Amino acid sequence: MSTVAKKTKLSLVIATLLATSAHANTTNEIEEITVVAKPTSYANNVIEPAMLEQQSSVSSVLAVIDNLPGISINEGDAFGGDDWSTTITMRGFSIDGNQQQLGMTIDGIPNGGSNYGGGAKANRYLDSENLATVEVGQGTSDIASASLEALGGTFNFVSAQPSTEQSTTFAYTTGDHNASRYFVKHETGTVFDNTQAYISYSQTDTSRWIGDGSNGGKDNQHIEAKFVSDFSDLTVTGRVSYDDVHEINYNSISISEFEQNPDWDRLTWNWTGVPHFDQMFAEGWGTLRENTLAYVKFDYALGATSNLSLSPYYHKNSGRGDWIPPYLTSPVDDGNPTTIGGENAGNYGFTDSEGNPLAPAAGCTASLEWPWSSGPGLNPACYPDDAIPVMSYRHTHYKKDRLGMTGEYQVTLGNHDIEAGFWFEQTDRDESRDWHKVIDARIYHHFDHTPYWTQYKNTFETDTFKWYVQDSISLGDFTLNLGAKQYLVELQRYNHFEDEYSDKIDSDSDVLFSGGVLYQLSASTELFTSYSENFAAIKDGVLERDSSTLTEIEPESAENIDLGVRYSDDRLSLTATAYSIEFDNRITFIAPGSDTDGIDYTIGTNGSYINVGGIESTGVELSASYMLTDKWNLYTSYTYNNSEYQSNDPSAYNSDGELLEDATASFKAGDEVIDSAQDLFVVSADYYSGDFRFGLSAKYTGERLGAWTDEQTRSRNEVDGYTLVDLNIGYNTSLDSGVFKSIDLAFVVNNLFDKSYLAGGTGNGSTYFIGAPRTAALTLTAQF
């Protein structure tokens, strides 16, 4: 805000960038070089407009940040069609199926967590056409960021502002893998002399790229509305988004399975009537989610040098995760059959015509060997010909309600720019699991909607309060930043079956300090350094696990140091940052032992969480944007990251470093962190001439090390590096007469050379998702 914070040349350029709407380059001319980082004392990047054009409108908004330094985004397909297989890494920190170590906000409003079970990433809140930019704080995150997961940095996805001009936009996209998308948006222009608003709707459908026929995909409906009203010193902004999606998942596979067949994730698309095979039927692996997020922001200028901002918000999340186990369970409570709670006394895969469980024939040892060993219990050859196969349809239900508010006061007093703020949130998250009988497993997976067993039902209550204060002191060419923040987090679980509350768990942080120095070496060059203490609260999922010793679990924390330089002139902008991160008290889940191969569908609230030491990361991030001519712009970024474990895995080794009985090889101090690529390199070229635009982008991801395969040799899985090339071509023309104001045609090809590769991992270093093949999409957009 100009009345509060002093602006440098670099920040003015940033303001120009932030005013650029997604896909809004109607003149197709390069007017100004966009800088890569804000004038702050820590590494902070924003996307360039060309990065929006490198992705089709069908793609997830997460994909647009993939070319920024230090970041790797992997989704199950080129369209971001599956949350289950989405992984994000930055500076050795991850968001995947097992870890949530990076914060995410929408217009500064917290997203409610990025985990699969009840979380919601930015793609649930924003369509690509309504994205203005993404602000990325690598490592040392913005002190005001509202997140309980910001150990390694933050992503703030900024929605576009309504236009002052009235218009209606319609877009249609068609692409590979049966992709189709309809998008319509109406801008009101200025109404009531002080208000602008828009509303948009999209319908997106895609198919899984692996397999054919009955193979599932993504079905997504999305609505957004936003308004901005100015009342002299008060600006009121309101926004609401609704997203309803059904996704069929991708499956992770081992390196050896990929080498055997790199085009198949082992899910099937033909129903066989043999449950052991049909547990891999793709349409039985589903994610259903509804998300509604609404906020109102009151921004009041108290005077020429002070401002107050308040943003109350509400988020409602509900959904379900599906699997189809190849058996029925036998739930009991104190030895008696039950339909509510208790535990599973055993499984059976076949019944007689009366529904009575059958045991395999005595002496039969035959076993089906795909997808893993069935044993005689699930092999039809061990039963009479008239035996009836049975299956379950397992549903895990997720529901979350969040009500909260963020607030910030900014004031300039002499050479001090002071900001102080808070974040409060109350969250109720429900999770339950029920088992349904597949009506006739010989025919299809249609299921009885009345469950035969509800395994558990819990409600998790989380109260969060964060305060922060920061002083930015201007001392000539030096700017000194000093800040402090603290999180006060309280967790509690209510077990519906036991009708009891757990003890309240405090997951409070210490007072966390940050500081930095920015030196304006010249009009075009800045030097900066910073230190920050980051924090991630204990997740409420820890309270699910009865074996977790909560008194022995500490919240995760990280100390981040950045040292860098930024340069910007009329044609060139660049940044270079060296960083060091100490990550302590990493929490991991230890699953109970199992003597069977394959998926343990009955795992419920058993297992435990423990702290497993820390990680040290050091690295360098480089990026540059250069206007070669008035029509050509070049962009490049390079990241070197080295992340190492700082202690032995306590779940695998004793204090002498000796492998525990029944444990398998795991990490030791000095080992490279699982699935963390050391090298990331991006180069892209973009051409604009009149109505025509063209872009070509290439990204190299270095090799990654996975799990340990042998304790004696300390050998590990290795995932090969890969290079992906993307192409985009577009044509935009303004029309002076007729119905339409403008027409835009955009053609995007991801993975142009159809590279076969393994993309994101599951966090255990043993299985990975297959990278998406060459995928093309064509979008026609008309504005009238």
Radius of gyration: 27 Å
State the major sheet: 22 strands, antiparallel, barrel
Give the low-confidence spans.
1-27, 29-38
Q: How many individual helices?
A: 4
The total strand number stands at 43
Q: Based on the structure, what is the oligomeric state of the protein chains? A: single chain
> What best-fitting shape do the alpha-carbon axes yield?
globular
How would you portray this structure in words?
The protein has 784 residues and is mainly beta. It is 3% helix and 50% strand. The chain is built from 4 helices and 43 strands. The strands form 8 sheets. The chain has a 22-stranded antiparallel beta barrel. The chain has a 5-stranded mixed beta sheet with strand order 1-7-8-5-6, with no helix packed on it. A hairpin with a 3-residue loop joins strand 10 and strand 11 (195-207).
Helix-strand blueprint:
Elements: H1 9-18, E1 44-46, H2 49-53, E2 71-74, E3 87-90, E4 93-95, E5 103-106, E6 109-110, E7 131-138, E8 153-159, E9 166-175, E10 179-191, E11 195-207, E12 217-231, E13 234-248, H3 255-260, H4 275-278, E14 286-303, E15 306-323, E16 328-333, E17 336-337, E18 343-348, E19 350-351, E20 388-389, E21 392-413, E22 416-437, E23 453-475, E24 478-495, E25 500-501, E26 505-506, E27 512-520, E28 525-536, E29 556-568, E30 572-584, E31 587-590, E32 608-611, E33 615-627, E34 632-645, E35 679-689, E36 692-701, E37 704-708, E38 716-719, E39 722-734, E40 742-750, E41 758-761, E42 768-770, E43 775-783
Parallel strand pairs: 5-8
Antiparallel strand pairs: 1-7, 2-3, 3-4, 5-6, 7-8, 9-10, 9-43, 10-11, 11-12, 12-13, 13-14, 14-15, 15-21, 16-17, 16-18, 19-20, 21-22, 22-23, 23-24, 24-25, 24-26, 24-27, 27-28, 28-29, 29-30, 30-33, 31-32, 33-34, 34-35, 35-36, 36-39, 37-38, 39-40, 40-43, 41-42
